[in-house]
Amino acid sequence: MRRSQMIIAFAASTALALTGCGRDDGNGTTDGDGDGAPATGEAVTTEGVSGELEVWAMGAEGEKLPELVADFEEENPDITVNVTPVPWDSAHDKFVNSITAGTTPDVAMVGTTWMGEFAGMDALDPTPGSIDTSKFFEGAQETTVVDGTSYGVPWYVETRLVYYRTDIAEEAGQTEVPQDQDGFKEMAAAMKEKGGADWGISLQPGQTGSWQTVMPFAWSRGAEIATEDGYTFDTPEMVAAVDYYGSFFAEEIANPNPPEGQTEADFVSGAVPMFISGPWMMSIVEDFAANEGDDAFGDKYDVTPVPSADGAESSSFIGGSNLAVFSNTEQRDAAWALVDWLTQPETQVTWYDLTSALPSVQSAWEDEALTSDDKLAKFGTALQTAQAPPSFPSWEQVAEAFDGEIEKVAKEGLSGQEAMQAAQSQADSIGTGQ
């Protein structure tokens, strides 16, 4: 999850994104345009509408959203917006229970990996063809597409890069970070052997969410974990990626049993001079260093893309949250009017000022408020090629099985072939949930 205290900014150039137009199929949705564009729903009127909206949002978004939507209500005096903050740890079950009971809100912040599940329950309204989806980062927009239809829009985004200590890298004889995976591992080993670190890099040894760290290495080898028909974990590319990931533990470059909550402490002390995370960690490590008396720590580290292999393009994980309208809303026009307003570039910049949430709208990054930090321009570049997991309703369950196999790789020395065969077998048993 993105941390609200992050201080982040980057300039990103425009990347191609999916469009949301097509031909009416007579059932309230439109077919794709023949070039892979997702189907969309009936158009809405976003001006001159009225109604009372119930909105759910999690974390800092739920706390800050009332302040933002006050401006929307001022611009749309016939619409009232009631925001209910929902704790992240209970949000998923609250949504599922409300879907079952028919008591869903009109609009909600929805985690990207929940989209397939909720759409599979017929709970989400297809994105209207009149909503411009071409303004979003492509990878973010793809998180809204389930079985060929878009359900919602990206609200904010994040991606992951490698953090590394430049001073320790220099001590290890590394003046530049290798962009190939073999060279990258050699650098991590050198930072331990020559740079005085306890471990060369911190990698998650399985357990919940480890796929978010493993998959960037796999995508950066050209691997895919799913087709339209199902999961594909047992491919040569995935096996090679998992073997590569496991080699960091087998060769004692990464700790298979790292202590919890030590990432920033170990990074600042130099005990573990590399880790993979999102842009929120910049403020966290710098604040920790300042508390330790090092106000200039920002000059001692940098970020770099996940290394690639086999001629593939570097590709990281794209996360964040989407905005969705629930299908049982009685205020469809007003609901989508709010969603459209929340994803206007100027609104996204205001939201960034309030919460530090990274805008999903590409043009928002051209604002002066988001162009002050050259270091974070690398996150903007990464967003243009970042990928998300498949939007199958069963993804959360399959991801749990995948994480379990990665833990065996890291802690028991299981081979990539064995792990991915087991993951594939479990995924086949679970199915896509479609």
From TrEMBL:
Polar residues bias locations: 422-434
Domain of life the protein comes from: Bacteria
GO biological process, one term: maltose transport
Gene3D superfamilies in the record: Periplasmic binding protein-like II
Keyword annotations from UniProtKB, A to Z: Signal, Transport
Alphabetical list of InterPro entries matching this protein: SBP
Stored PROSITE patterns: PROKAR_LIPOPROTEIN
Region called Disordered, residue ranges: 413-434
One annotated Gene Ontology cellular component of this protein: ATP-binding cassette (ABC) transporter complex, substrate-binding subunit-containing
Sample GO molecular function, one term: maltose binding
Family annotation (SUPFAM superfamilies): Periplasmic binding protein-like II
Similarity-based family: Belongs to the bacterial solute-binding protein 1 family.
Protein name: Sugar ABC transporter substrate-binding protein
Originating organism: Ornithinimicrobium tianjinense
Lineage start: Bacteria, Bacillati, Actinomycetota, Actinomycetes, Micrococcales
